[in-house]
Amino acid sequence: MSASRTSRRGLLAAAGLALAGVGAGLVWRTIKRQAQALQEAENHFWRQQFARLDGVALATSTFKGRPLVLNFWATWCPPCVEELPLIDNFFQQNKTKGWQVLGLAVDQAGPVTRFLAQSPLSFSVALAGFPGIEISRSLGNSSGALPFTVVFDSTGQVVHRKMGKLTTDDLRLWERLPV
């Protein structure tokens, strides 16, 4: 092999490594920015208030200090409605262990009131309305679909996210989380 051919291969290899380094750096910056955005969204969540069905404001900060299952749901979403009894059962079984549940309805007051009159829930429910989709997106729901659930530990940090309908396995996993 000639010296010029070896020299070109060396230059190509060096250029390839440099490009790989630049690419890795860009990926790292993107991941870091996404992590910062999620952290800011989590912090912002704890400063928000939502209307309960009785019209009284519910401050999310009242839930901080104990583990919280935050579920985004709507009356017009069949998988949401199907999972609510499962979530309610989880709450009933785990509230003495400090677990809390907040259902944020991405819906209007009328349909939620009618739904809860027929299918009461023992955990807190508040109205996020359609802006609730953007709140769920900020917490990691990239598709904006429902149902979407976020689990916070007692320090207010997200420890799990679940897109789609919950299963009993999901809830068993959460019971074992160090919260």
Features:
single chain; 7 strands; elongated; alpha/beta; 48% helix
Determine the number of helices (DSSP H or I, runs of at least 4 residues).
5
Question: Low-confidence stretches at least 5 residues in length (pLDDT < 50)?
Answer: none
Which class best fits the helix and strand makeup?
alpha/beta
Summarize the amount of helix as a percent range.
Answer: 40-55%
Distance between the termini: 63 Å
The strands making up the biggest β-sheet line up spatially as 2-1-5-4-3-6-7
**What is the N-to-C succession of helices and strands?**
HEEEHEHEHEEH
Globular, elongated, flat, extended or rod-shaped: what is the shape? elongated
Q: Which sheet architecture does the biggest sheet show?
A: 7 strands, mixed
Beta-strand proportion: 15-25%
Mind telling me the C-alpha Rg?
A: 23 Å
Beta-strand segment tally: 7
Average pLDDT over all residues: 87
Structure write-up:
With 179 residues, the chain is of the alpha/beta class. Helices cover 48% and strands 19% of the residues. It has five helices and seven strands. A seven-stranded mixed sheet has the order 2-1-5-4-3-6-7, sandwiched between helices.
Summarize this structure briefly.
The chain has 179 residues and is an alpha/beta fold. It is 48% helix and 19% strand. Strand 1 (49-52) and strand 2 form a beta hairpin.
Task: Annotate the secondary structure layout.
Elements: H1 3-45, E1 49-52, E2 57-59, E3 68-73, H2 78-94, E4 100-105, H3 109-118, E5 124-127, H4 131-138, E6 148-152, E7 158-163, H5 168-175
Parallel strand pairs: 3-4, 4-5
Antiparallel strand pairs: 1-2, 1-5, 3-6, 6-7
